[in-house]
Amino acid sequence: IDRRFKHSLRDNRIELVRASWHELSISVSDVSLSDEGQYTCSLFTMPVKTSKAFLTVLGVPEKPQITGFTSPVMEGERMQLTCKTSGSKPAADIRWFKNDKEVKDVKYLKEEDANRKTFTVSSTMDFLADRNDDGAVVSCRVDHESLNSTPQIAMQVLEIHYTPLVKIISSNSWPEEGQSIILTCESKGKPVPEPVLWTKDGGELPDPERMVVNGRVLSISFLNKTDNGTYRCEAKNPIGRNSTEYVLIVHDVFNTLLPTTVIPSLTTATVTTTVALTTSTTTSATANSTRDPNALAGQTGPDHALIGGIVAVVVFVTLCSIILLGRYLARHKGTYLTNEAKGAEDAPDADTAIINAEGSQVNAEEKKEYFI
Questions:
Q1: 70-97 pLDDT, tens per residue?
Q2: Do 133 and 160 meet the contact criterion of CB atoms below 8 Å apart?
Q3: What count of other Cβ atoms lies within 10 Å of the Cβ of residue 45?
Q4: 0.85 cut: is pTM over it?
């Protein structure tokens, strides 16, 4: 064996494992980069036999570290995160991930170490801070053949501060007079926004008794037309402020009742009613009109709309009955002549007409007897 084996007696890391005429084995423990090189095994026979082998020592990369991070970061600021690892041989590979999704747009730098055998590798990720990145986990992953498919990973959780995001949610998509409505102002920001401010048409709420603010919720009871307007919700935190608006339009209750109460009754009376069924149709309409107040008892609003609907139904059914009765009488209309009138058709005077009429009656009597 060459000079390395000659020095083995003074290096406790190198041991002779087996020696025979056919095999010579050594073991090296706690391998270092200095152990890399060519090893020669010589068997002193006649002639001398030799065999050579080159030992390659891999440099294991150090655990990576992420630098350049400050906490917290304001939304819109530029961030530069650098991941660095040293001692790899050959040079290690670095990859970036954000919430387990790989980031491709990064810079890669490789430098040779002072021992001229290992490398220091760094990678930089450059991006603008966004509110969607708040709480995201950024990880730097080092892959190297010496790690046996178990990469080294460094992680950093991002903390992004941003202005509030405001949204108004309504409890009633079609508010009507007399009803109530609840407007909820949802605000999300970091730090958490302060209590929100409600205004109407650029000023304070005009009716504090009906318009009650509880935290982020605005409740308005007994709606009327004066409540129409633009309601604004404003939220702020140390980073800034933001607001959103909701346009309230209070609708008339009559617009909702007309299609459900009047139209079905008119359709039934027009299509199916007859002289004989007019009474039952009217009774059905009356019964339906009687049930409607109970069905709408939970709603608040003026009664004149309901009364007007009932009157319209009664008037319409009455008109239909009169028209149908007139058509019935017209079909049975005709000319009816008495016996006296029949005798007077050709008579020159009244006496002759009476005589002719009596004669007709006699003839009628005779014809009856004759036929019997």
A1: 889 999 999 999 999 999 999 999 999 9
A2: yes
A3: 8
A4: no
